Amino acid sequence: MNNTDLILRNVRMNDELHHLIIDQRKGIITAIQSAQGEAGGMSQGGEIDCGGLLYLPAMTDKHVHLDKHFLGEPWRPLQPFVTLPGQLAFEKEMLSYLPTAPVERARRLIELLLRQGTTSIRTHVDVDPELGLQHLEGLLEAKDEYKDVMDIEIVAFPQQGLLRSASVSVMREAMAAGADYVGGVDPAGLDGRVDASLETMFELASEFGAGVDLHLHDPGQLGLYTIDRFTELASDAGLGGRAAVSHAYCLGQVGEAEFGRTAERLQRSGVAIITSVPIDRPMPRVTGLLDAGVEVFVGCDNILDAWSPFGNGDLLARGSRLAEKEGWIIDGDLLRAFPLIGGAPLVPKAGDPASFQLVRAMNPMHAIAAAPGKEAVYSRGKLVGGRMYEAQHLQTSDSYQAVQS
Ligand SMILES: [Zn+2]
Questions:
Q1: How far is the CA of 132 from the centre of ligand 1 (A)?
Q2: Of 93, 123, 118, residue with least CA distance to 106
Q3: Which of 81, 156, 192, 242 gets the most CB atoms within 10 Å of its CB?
Q4: Residue 55 Cα, ligand 1 centroid: separation in angstroms?
Q5: Active-site residue (options: 65, 69, 124, 247)
Q6: Alpha carbon of 326 to ligand 1 centroid (Å)
Q7: Residue-by-residue pLDDT tens, the chain, 405 positions
Q8: How far is residue 356's CA from residue 337's CA, in Å, rounded to a whole number?
């Protein structure tokens, strides 16, 4: 142990208490010791008695929009969703009124997500001929600013429709400027040309060696056809593992047999499904997808924006909602939620990044069921969220015995 290491005493893992030794400079866990033994004495890096708080890995939110929420702005009343084009115009108008620069908007949501235990995200960012790369440039700046604590993948997202808004050339500029994924939305509902829209996405992806992540709200058979074609193109492009369909409500709307066939195609092509676990409409059958071997991820998606006033960035709560919706009540099922909200193991080993959260729960099953608030969030050894962070920064709480910090 270095004398600058941080010692977190009495952290619960595997139903036992352990001491976590953290090299804050390297941002890694250097040792995990049973709380029965000694943690090698005092360290100038500080010690915190965690009193049996449960260790959980930090989370990965696979679908957020850093550029278009209203966090930190005055309350903005929404209007009912009538048609998608109407909603797109409404959103554009609302965003045009926002006084805050995209980089500042990105900072606000990144800060919220860190507080909530998320240290890795995939964000979509609007691009269109009118907007150009304004939002993307702000996000790239924020990505660099937060690179020590938040991993950020950026999807260039033609929200107004890739073909509908003639966004192919601005998408090309976005990919050249540093976006990691080619986005798209409703190849039928918005672009009116499923094959041409998808083929254009995959052409852009191959031109830039990028992944693909499609927003798909198109329903029923239309949605299913779109996914099937998407899986063919992903296979042809060898993009298994780097291609995803977000939302895919149709996978909760069609019959079992059709669902099963498409699930098999998804599995074969390595195309993932990303869901925000909506409760106001059918959503993909997640249990069926997992049983078929399809990769599934969860994201918060809209948080206080023109689409929805709901959401607080708490991905553990979103995982809890998923478990409840899917009827996962036995231990083995409750544990199925964790890989969908963050890939790291529930028990770390020495050398792992010190990116984790501490919560008040008996075990991981209880944590998914109860979705407790975060007591502490560490990202690569830095305290970035939770009540412990608030106590240090606001200095209004003495509920944690920080011996030294
Ligand atoms: Zn979205």
A1: 19
A2: 123
A3: 156
A4: 30
A5: 247
A6: 22
A7: 777 899 999 999 999 999 999 999 999 999 999 998 765 666 777 999 999 999 999 999 999 999 999 999 999 999 998 898 999 999 999 999 899 999 999 999 999 999 999 999 999 999 999 999 999 999 999 999 999 999 999 999 999 999 999 999 999 999 999 999 999 999 999 999 999 999 999 999 999 999 999 999 999 999 999 999 999 999 999 999 999 999 999 999 999 999 999 999 999 999 999 999 999 999 999 999 999 999 999 999 999 999 999 999 999 999 999 999 999 999 999 999 999 999 899 999 999 999 999 999 999 999 999 999 999 999 999 999 999 999 988 754 444 343 333
A8: 16
pTM, rounded to two decimals: 0.95
Two structure tokens written together for 223: 């949605």
Task: List beta partners, residue 296.
Answer: 273
Helices 194-208 and 220-236, packing angle to 10 deg = 30
What are the structural domains, with CATH classification, of the chain?
5-58+347-404 (2.30.40.10), 59-340 (3.20.20.140)
Residue 69 a catalytic site member: no
Report how far ligand 1's centroid is from the alpha carbon of 357 (Å).
Answer: 26
Q: 309 C-alpha vs ligand 1 centroid, how far in Å? A: 14
